[in-house]
Design brief:
Blueprint lengths: L4 E5 L6 H18 L5 E5 L5 H7 L5 E5 L16 H7 L3 E4 L2 H6 L4 H13 L3 E6 L3 H5 L3 H13 L4 H4 L3 E4 L13 H18 L2 H6 L2 E4 L4 H8 L6 E4 L6 H14 L1
The chain binds 2-phosphoglycolic acid.
């Protein structure tokens, strides 16, 4: 069975104090309920990671990086390596978020190198894919997502890809308040699985986690998480406040 994950991506929000307060509130809640069905993850800004990981080390909350360098180490000013994330306590890393692709022009080759850095350092990559509004209007959404998967991950075999999570995040739904319907999410998630089955095998297609992201909030999470091929969510805005994120964890526990 695919692992079920409710993950928050804080992007460039919360100073250290604000961020650690949210992590503390999540930790207090998770210690009480000890979630059974879902893994819970927060991806704070890099400089919060070591302390966030320290606070959450006894709970079910895992910490993720929002990105990592494609390089192992060296003269790359401003970059943060996968090894550094791991040493600070991160267990996962988001790779290929649409904001990285769009604003930082990250290419398939760079994303592929980042995935390799994550694997080399025992971090689970959450690899993001998703089409723009133009792609969807033109009916190219399936092709765009297939190209993103084969462009960066095409050279890896099924055994390697068992250690990877996919997040489908339609760009038109990220931070816009507009969300894919349950049916649209299900259609793409099923498509991703059939593409993986065709490229690799049915076992990997069944077992790989495919998260949905894009304006997930308590009001729509039940519909989205309730789809048979949706294994959880990658949540931006609604993960910034502990109470809202806790509501999403509860919905995940109930329906995933
Ligand atoms: P959003 O962001 O939930 O604020 O739309 C999701 C994401 O970008 O991961």
């Amino acid at each position: 069975m695919a692992r079920k994950i409710v993950a928050g991506n804080w992007k460039m929000n919360h100073n250290l104090k604000e961020g650690l307060e949210v992590v503390q509130a999540l930790e207090a809640y998770l210690l009480k309920i000890a979630p059974k069905n879902v893994e819970t993850v927060i991806a704070p800004p890099f400089i919060h990671i070591a302390q966030a990981a320290e606070i959450s080390k006894n709970t079910h909350l895992s910490i993720a990086g929002q990105d990592c360098s494609a390089q192992e180490s060296g003269a790359f000013t401003g970059e943060v390596s996968a090894a550094m994330l791991k040493s600070a306590g991160a267990e996962l890393v988001i790779i290929g978020h649409s904001e990285r692709r769009q604003y930082f022009k990250e290419t398939h080759a760079q994303l592929s190198a980042k995935v390799e850095q994550a694997w080399a350092n025992n971090l689970l990559p959450i690899f993001c894919v998703g089409e723009s509004l133009e792609d969807r209007k033109a009916g190219h959404h399936f092709k765009t997502v297939e190209d993103q998967i084969s462009g960066a991950l095409g050279k890896y075999d099924a055994a390697q890809l068992e250690n990877l999570v996919i997040a489908y995040e339609p760009v038109w739904a990220i931070g816009t308040g507009e969300t894919a319907s349950g049916a649209q999410a299900q259609e793409m998630h099923a498509h991703i699985r059939s593409f993986i089955a065709q490229q690799h095998n049915a076992t990997l297609a069944d077992e790989i986690s495919v998260l949905y992201g894009g304006s997930v909030k308590p009001a729509n999470a039940e519909e989205l998480f309730g789809q048979p091929d949706v294994d959880g969510g990658l949540i931006g805005g609604a993960s910034l406040q502990a109470d809202t994120f806790i509501e999403l964890i509860k919905i995940g526990e109930a329906v995933l």
